[in-house]
Amino acid sequence: MIPDVAQLIERLNELGYIVEEELATVLLLALKLEKPLLLEGPPGVGKTEAAHILASHLDTELIRLQCYEGLDVNTAIYEWNYQKQLLSIKINEHADLSAREKEEQIFGEEYLLKRPLLQAITAIEKPPVLLIDEVDRADEEFEAFLLELLSAFQITIPEMGTIKAQHRPIVVLTSNRTRELSDALKRRCLYHWITYPNFDKEIRIVRKRFPEINEEIARQLVAFVEELRKMNLQKSPGIAETLDWIQSLLALQTDTFSAEYIEKTLGCVLKSDHDIHAVKNQGVEQILEEIKS
Amino acid sequence: MPLFHFTNHDSYDEAITGFADYCREHELAVGLSHTQEALLAAQSGFANDLATLKYTLRALFCTCEEENPAFDKCFDVYWGKRKHEYAHKINNQSRSNVTKKANASLVMMGFNPNGKETEKEEEAKNITGSSRIESLKKTDFSKVAAIDSPLLDEVAEKLLRQLNHRLKRKLESTKKGKVDIRKTIRNNLSNGDALIELSRRNRKLEKYRLILLLDVSGSMDKYSFFLLKFIWSLKSNLKNIEAFVFSSKLIRITELLHQHQLDETLWQMSHQTDNWSSGTKIGECLQEFNQQYAKRILNGKSITIVLSDGLDNGDADLLGKELHKIKLRTSKLIWLNPLKGMQGYQPIAKGMQAALPEVDQFASAHNLESLLQLENMLAHV
């Protein structure tokens, strides 16, 4: 490990994010090379969290763009405030302005609704962290547009001209892999696959988040969740689910991690009827005994 | 001792450039810009520690999780301590052994990966990627060796996912409409003459419906499982699909396809259909289809696809007649026949001959590539 990486790990740890050496290296590399970072992995392993923590580490703004099917350029970059423009025309109807002046006025910056991508480009003070979340959900056309943005970091608005980024934003893309991203996009990014944490790391995360939890119960619970991940479920529980479960334990003030309790609260970790039945059929007690032995 | 000591190079720059070449040889798609960035990273101190260097180069050179193992192998061999002068050679040798084995299994499948014809096709299609996958795409389903079956599954899943993604957009257009002036004025009457709310006119959604009829009789045994998988994957991505299986009876399986896992669908299907791998009465099954479902399901925006080898022991005339009825109701009728991929195949089976005049398109469905052709057929509806 090089000293820079060790430093970053410690710093992120202070901020409440436990990070492996590899991810820390990649994060540092993304900062050094000013290259977008693509994080892939199953849901609930802390991909989005990585961007959040990067922003708080750099003490800068986090701008988030949540992707979805049908996301278009209007919602991602900019839109003219149409209603405001109309009202302005109305107000200036009898004003002594030439048509050209009126036009200039309504296509000014105050009539521009900035959407996340434009916000990221026009940040004034320091480079923001731009999080493009779940990019696999967006359409392929949007991906093509992102390519252009990620290479040049500039946006053209026909009425105003080209706006170039003053500071190159730090871009983090996340994907759950519901579809393959295009090779062109991948080639422009650093790639890192985040997977479920190992036992020790998950325990550390749990202890960091909930210091009051009983050590023994935490170990059993994490081991149980690990066991669930090994089963062939529709949706394997992520770290978020583990934390939810711990929180439910604390809220219900239970001091034993019994089969009865597990059956009642299985909904905290498993989010589909099919999965819950599968686990119950296998026998919660049996799984619990396996862990203990 | 610097890290490049074991690589037989004299500097980091040379060692890293050499490593990029080495990765390329092992089928990782490493571009020049990646090498450049790797050099840059090495200069900023990322090459001072072996683990750090590995993570750095992995982030730069890999583009998906599946490439990680291949990269790790390359890295360990290239930068590792145990490496000596001959390591490169040994590695190459063992690699070529693997290739030989893979090729042998392909030749056994009745397919020669070194044949001239295929090479030409490969060159045109794909520059990177292993030749094994390319040839699997062209291998007849009935000849896929057991060892290659998981690989085929993987390739199929990936390709079908891409196909579905494109099909989805073709089948339902979701363009945001143009401004509808008339409606806008009407809606904004209460605002005086200012048009505050814009009404848009959406283009009418063109929803095509796919109707799939799959033959699961004995003669189709080798194909029906793959084709069912194909239907299943279409179903999980497109909403407007109706699927049926038939042999001596017709059974609607649209509901069964709703399962999240393929195994479960298959299991339920085996419980419901007692006619798997039995004789074929295509004509009667189509008649049943026409009587029970056609009126409800078929319309001008539907595409009907029959997946069958046309080997029929029922009434061929009936088959022709019923097919004609379907054709009248549907906008396109496609017949996919797995046997068509065989060399020298002639559609001389009675059933097939009766069917051909009614069919808009007659194509093969014996390997992955032919299934992917479906996209082009659907594009011109």
Can you give a write-up of this model?
The complex is a heterodimer of chains A (293) and B (381). Chain A is of the alpha/beta class and 293 residues long. Chain A is built from 15 helices and nine strands. Chain A has helices at residues 3-14, 21-33, 47-58, 73-76, 82-91, 99-106, 116-121, 140-152, 183-187, 199-209, 215-230, 239-251, 259-265, 273-282, 284-292, and strands at 37-40, 62-66, 78-80, 112-114, 129-133, 154-157, 161-164, 170-175, 190-193. In chain A, the strands form three sheets. In chain A, strands 2-5-8-1-9 form a five-stranded parallel sheet. Chain B starts with 11 loop residues before the first helix and ends with a helix. In chain B, α10 (221-237) links the parallel β3 and β4 (241-246). Chain B folds into three domains: 3-83; 175-203, no CATH class; 209-379, von Willebrand factor, type A domain (Rossmann fold, 3-Layer(aba) Sandwich), CATH 3.40.50.410. Chain B is of the alpha/beta class and 381 residues long. In chain B, α2 (32-46) runs antiparallel to α3 (50-61), α8 (149-171) packs across α10 and α12 runs parallel beside α13. Chain B is flat and about 85 Å long. The model of chain B is unreliable at 89-129 (pLDDT under 50). Classes of the chains: A alpha/beta (293), B alpha/beta (381). At the A-B interface, α2, α5, α9 and β9 of A face α2, α3 and α8 of B.
